[in-house]
Amino acid sequence: MRVCVWVDPTVGEVDDTLLTVARELIDNAAEHSEAGRLDVSVGREECGVVLDVSDDGVGTTPDELQRARAAGHLGLAICAGRVDARGGQFDIDTSRGRGMHVRAEFPPLRRLLRAV
Q1: For residue 100, what are the contacts with CB-CB under 8 A and spacing of at least 6?
Q2: Fewer CB near the last or first residue (10 Å), C or N of the chain?
Q3: Does the predicted TM-score (pTM) go above 0.85?
Q4: C-alpha–C-alpha distance, residues 116 and 113, integer Å
């Protein structure tokens, strides 16, 4: 699998949640996607820091994702929970034969601290 990684140099230091989610998404793609290419990017947007992970693999369906979770495959669900706990947004775009794209938005830490 060819892996392309891009990190916006203006992002600066990122928190452990982003690194943990990125690691899990990369591991999932390597193990399950049968992809020839994996793209990972970390950039700054109005919402905060955005992690995008996409592959050109086999993809899946919402039903298959639900069955995998019921069978104890919790990687994506745990990622979504971590991003949600950090005040962010976690979205999966996939379909059978079309690969998978996951976008995780992490709000700035200072905005999160004000909300507490």
Answers
A1: 29, 33, 54, 55, 57, 59, 60, 92, 93, 94
A2: C
A3: yes
A4: 5
